[in-house]
Write a structure and sequence with these properties.
By secondary structure, the chain is mainly alpha-helical. It is 75% helix and 0% strand. The protein is globular.
C-alpha cells in the first residue's frame, strides 16, 4: 500500500504527512535542547544546518505556503540553541570526583559526551564568525519579520486583535512568527553584537527607497525598521545617530497619505519605534516630529495607527511627568506637549468610544488618566471638568455595555475609569462633584462596584471603596449629604461580609469624624468591634492593623469611651507583641500614639495596659522596662524624610517624639522608682522636646497632614476649601489632647516624680535647677 506520486490529491497528502513529520521532529529537537542538552549535542549541528539553510532558501511565495507553526518551531529551535548555556563556549566540567568507584564505561561515556559538547560549542562559535551568520540575520529580517498578505488582511478586518498580537511581550515560547523571529534576532545579537548591528543597520539603509517605492519595497523597509525596533536597546552607543535617523529617514514616511495598508503598516512601525527610542528625542525638531505624529495618528480612522498613537503619547506624557521640576532643555518639550493636552484629551475619548476590546480600551483610558494628571496642573479646572462631563457618562455606558457581554470582561476598564475619576477629584475637589452628570456617574460607579452580591465585585470592590472614600474626603456637604446616611448600611454589609477590611476601616474613620460616633453605636458597635479585633489579631495583615489603629485614634478623639471598648482586648495583645519583639515596626508608632491618647484620657489605663502586655511573661515591671527603652530610643531618631525636609515629615517626627515623652512621663508617675535609673535620659529627652516645640511649633494643618493624610500645601488649599470632611477634621484634631498638651508642664511633673522616687529634694526650686542644669549641658 504505498502511494505513488501522481495526482494532485496524492501530492497534497504526501506534503501534509511531510509537514506533520517535520513539525513533530522539530518539537522533539526543542524538547531535547531543553531537557538533555549534553546528550543531544552530537545532533545539534546537523539540525542547525538544516534549519538555517531552510530559512535562507525560503522565498516570498514559499513563505506564504509554509504553515506559521513550522516557521515558529524553526526559529524557536535556533533561538534555544543559541541561548542555551550548555552550548556557549567554556570548559566542560566533568563529574570525576567519584571516578575510582564508578564503572569505567560510565567515565568513558561522560568523557565522550564532554568531547561532543565541546565540538558542538566550537561549531556554533565558528558559525557566529562565518559569512552564513550575516546571511541568516538578513533572511530573518527579509522573510520572518516581513508582514504577509494574511497579516495585512487581519490589520484591516480585526485591527484591535492585530494590534494586540503585534505588541505581545517578547517570548521565545510565543506562537507568533514575528515574535519568535524577534527573540532569535536578539539572541544572535547577544552572541555577536557588532556583526548583528552592522547587518541590521546596513540592510535598513539599503531598503530605504523613499516614499515613492513600490509596495514590496515598503514592506521590506517596515521589516528592517522592525529589526531596529527590536534591537534598539542593544545597539552600541554611537552606531546610530537617532536625531538624524528620525528627522531625515522616518518623518518622510509619516507624511505619506495613509490610504494603502502597506503604507499604514510602515507608519505604525515608525510610531512604535519612536516609543522605543523616546529617550533619544533630545532636540526640539525630533521631539516635535514625534509629538505631531502621535497627535495626528491618534485621530486616524485606522484603529491600529490610532492605538500606536496612544502608545507614543502615553510615553511622552509619562516622561514629562517624571521629569517635572527638572530645569533643562526639555522644558521647551514640556511646554510644547502641554499646549496640546486639551485637544489630545478630546481625541483620546473619541478613540476610546470606538474601541471594542477591553485591553485596547484600557490603554486609551490610561492615556486619558495621565493626560488629566498633566492637564489639571496648568489649565482652568472648569475647562477640564466640562470636558469630562461631556465624555465620562458616555464612556461609562460603553464600558457597562462591554461588561454585560461577558462576566468580568469590562472590569479592567471600569477600574481605569475609576482611576480617572480619582485623579480628577484629587486635583479639582468638589468642582467635579458639583457637575450633576459627573456626580451621577461617580455614585453609579460606586454602587456598581460595592455590590458584594455581584460577580464583578470580586474585581472591583476595592476600587469602588477607594472612590467612595475619596468622594467623602473631598465632597462638600451639598454634594455628599444625601448619600452619607443612605450608604452606611451598604458599608456595614461589606464589613459583615469580611471584604476589604482596610478600605472599609478608612471609610468608617471618615464617617466617625464627619457624622460623629453615633454611626457605630448601639447594635453596630459589636460588628465594628469584631472587625477591629480581627484586624489587630494574628489573622490581620499589617495594612489592616495600621488602618484599625488609625480608625481607633480618630474615634478616641470624638468618643474615647467608645474607642476603648472597641480596643480593650486588641491593644494588650499588641503590647505582648512589643514585649516579645514581634510587632511590625510599621505598627509601633500608631500603637504608641493610641496608648498615649488613652492614657491622657484616663491615666490609670497605663497600669492596665502594662499588666496585660506583660502577661505573656515578666509581668508589668518587665513591660514597663521594655517600653521605656523603646521610648528613649526615639530621642535621637529622625526619619530620612525629616532629613530631606519632606513636607509634613517634621511635624510627624515631632509628634512621634512628643508621644514618647508623654508616655515616659506617665510611666514615671505610676512607676517612679523604675524610672529613677533613667532619670537623666528621660529628662534630657523631655527638655530637648520642649525646646524643639518652642523653636519649631507646628500648626493644626501640619497635624492633619501627619495624622489624617490631608496635605494642606498652597496647591491644595482651594481643593480643601469646600470639603466638609476637612472642616470637620480640622475642628476635631485641633482639640487632640496630644497636640494641645503643654509639654513643659508635663516634663516638670515628670522631674518631680523621679526626684521623689530617688529620695531627692523635689520642691519646685530643685526641679527648676535640675531642668536648667540639664538644659545647660545639652548640645544645641
Amino acid at each position: 500500500g504505498s502511494l505513488a506520486a501522481g495526482s494532485a490529491a496524492e501530492v497534497s497528502l504526501w506534503r501534509e504527512l511531510a509537514a506533520k513529520s517535520c513539525t513533530l521532529i522539530n518539537k522533539c529537537c526543542i524538547a531535547a535542547v531543553d531537557k538533555h542538552p549534553k546528550g543531544f549535542a552530537p545532533a545539534v549541528v546537523p539540525f542547525l544546518q538544516v534549519y538555517v539553510e531552510t530559512i535562507m532558501h525560503l522565498d516570498y511565495h514559499a513563505l506564504q505556503g509554509v504553515s506559521q507553526k513550522r516557521l515558529v518551531l524553526m526559529t524557536r529551535f535556533l533561538a534555544k540553541v543559541f541561548h542555551a548555556p550548555a552550548y556557549k563556549r567554556g570548559p566542560v566540567v566533568l563529574n570525576l570526583a567519584s571516578a575510582p568507584g564508578r564503572p569505567p564505561q560510565e567515565v568513558q561515556q561522560e568523557e565522550a559526551e564532554a568531547q561532543e559538547v565541546q565540538l558542538c560549542r566550537r561549531a556554533i562559535g565558528d558559525f557566529f564568525e562565518s559569512p552564513i551568520f550575516a546571511q541568516l540575520i538578513e533572511a530573518l529580517i527579509t522573510k520572518f519579520l516581513l508582514l504577509t498578505d494574511e497579516e495585512l488582511e487581519e490589520w484591516e478586518s480585526d485591527p484591535e486583535g492585530f494590534f494586540l498580537v503585534s505588541n505581545l511581550d517578547l517570548d521565545i515560547e510565543s506562537e507568533v512568527r514575528r515574535c519568535c523571529a524577534e527573540a532569535l534576532l536578539l539572541f544572535l545579537m547577544e552572541r555577536n553584537i557588532e556583526s548583528t548591528t552592522r547587518v541590521v543597520l546596513s540592510l535598513a539603509a539599503e531598503a530605504d527607497k523613499g516614499p515613492g517605492a513600490d509596495r514590496q519595497a515598503l514592506r521590506l523597509t517596515e521589516a528592517c525598521l522592525h529589526a531596529i525596533d527590536a534591537t534598539a536597546l542593544l545597539i552600541p552607543t554611537g552606531s546610530l545617530d537617532y536625531e538624524a535617523f528620525i528627522v531625515n529617514d522616518l518623518v518622510k514616511y509619516l507624511q505619506m497619505p495613509s490610504t494603502d495598508v502597506v503604507v499604514r503598516s510602515l507608519q505604525g512601525r515608525i510610531l512604535h519605534l519612536l516609543v522605543t527610542v523616546s529617550s533619544e528625542l533630545q532636540s526640539e525638531a525630533s521631539y516635535g516630529h514625534a509629538l505631531k505624529a502621535g497627535l495626528e495618528f491618534l485621530q486616524s480612522p485606522d484603529v491600529v495607527l490610532a492605538l500606536y498613537g496612544v502608545k507614543l503619547l502615553h510615553k511622552l506624557c509619562l516622561a514629562d511627568i517624571l521629569r517635572k521640576g527638572v530645569k533643562s532643555v526639555q522644558e521647551a518639550q514640556s511646554a510644547l506637549l502641554r499646549q496640546h493636552l486639551g485637544p489630545m484629551l478630546g481625541s483620546s475619548f473619541q478613540l476610546a468610544s470606538k474601541l471594542q476590546d477591553a485591553e485596547t480600551l484600557q490603554m486609551a483610558l490610561k492615556l486619558i488618566a495621565i493626560e488629566i494628571e498633566a492637564l489639571t496642573e496648568q489649565t482652568n479646572d472648569a475647562e477640564t471638568v466640562a470636558m469630562l462631563t461631556t465624555h465620562v457618562p458616555q464612556m461609562w455606558q460603553t464600558i457597562l455595555a462591554l461588561s454585560e457581554k461577558e462576566a468580568g470582561f469590562g472590569a479592567p476598564c471600569q477600574s481605569s475609569l475609576i482611576n480617572i475619576l480619582l485623579l480628577l477629584i484629587e486635583k479639582v475637589g468638589d468642582a467635579c462633584l458639583r457637575a450633576n452628570q459627573l456626580r451621577e456617574v461617580v455614585f453609579q460607579l460606586i454602587g456598581f462596584c460595592v455590590n458584594v452580591g455581584a460577580s464583578h465585585a470580586t474585581y472591583l470592590l476595592e476600587d469602588g471603596l477607594k472612590l467612595w472614600r475619596t468622594v467623602m474626603l473631598y465632597g462638600s456637604e451639598a454634594s455628599i449629604s444625601d448619600s452619607i446616611q443612605s450608604s452606611l448600611g451598604t458599608l456595614l454589609g461589606i464589613i459583615q461580609a469580611g471584604k476589604e477590611n482596610h478600605e472599609t476601616l478608612c471609610i468608617l474613620k471618615v464617617y466617625v469624624l464627619l457624622c460623629g460616633p453615633e454611626v457605630i453605636r448601639g447594635e453596630r458597635e459589636a460588628l465594628v468591634k469584631l472587625l477591629v479585633e480581627h484586624c489587630l489579631s494574628e489573622k490581620g495583615t499589617v495594612k489592616e492593623a495600621f488602618a484599625a489603629l488609625d480608625f481607633l485614634y480618630a474615634t478616641t478623639l470624638v468618643d474615647p469611651d467608645l474607642s476603648y471598648r472597641l480596643a480593650q482586648s486588641a491593644v494588650p495583645f499588641l503590647l505582648q507583641k512589643v514585649a516579645s519583639k514581634q510587632l511590625s515596626r510599621a505598627l509601633l508608632d500608631p500603637l504608641l500614639s493610641l496608648i498615649a491618647l488613652f492614657v491622657l484620657w484616663n491615666g490609670s489605663l497605663l497600669d492596665v495596659f502594662l499588666s496585660a502586655g506583660g502577661s505573656g511573661g515578666g509581668g508589668s515591671d518587665a513591660m514597663a522596662d521594655e517600653l521605656a527603652k523603646i521610648l528613649l530610643s526615639f530621642k535621637s531618631l529622625r526619619s530620612v524624610h525629616e532629613f530631606l525636609a519632606v513636607p509634613g515629615a517634621r511635624a510627624a517626627g515631632s509628634l512621634k517624639r512628643k508621644v514618647a515623652v508623654i508616655l515616659l512621663g506617665f510611666i514615671a508617675k505610676y512607676q517612679p522608682t523604675r524610672m529613677a535609673k533613667y532619670k537623666d535620659h528621660v529628662l534630657q529627652f523631655g527638655v530637648s522636646q520642649v525646646r524643639e516645640e518652642v523653636q519649631n511649633s507646628f500648626s493644626v494643618e501640619d497635624l492633619l497632614d501627619a495624622k489624617a493624610g490631608l496635605t494642606t500645601g498652597s496647591e491644595h488649599a482651594e481643593v480643601w476649601g469646600s470639603s466638609a470632611f476637612f472642616a470637620k477634621a480640622k475642628e476635631v484634631f485641633s482639640r487632640d489632647p496630644i497636640y494641645t498638651l503643654n509639654l513643659r508642664e508635663l516634663v516638670g511633673h515628670t522631674a518631680e516624680y523621679i526626684l521623689q522616687a530617688a529620695r531627692e529634694n523635689s520642691d519646685q526650686q530643685h526641679v527648676d535647677a535640675l531642668l536648667t542644669n540639664i538644659m545647660g549641658n545639652m548640645k544645641v
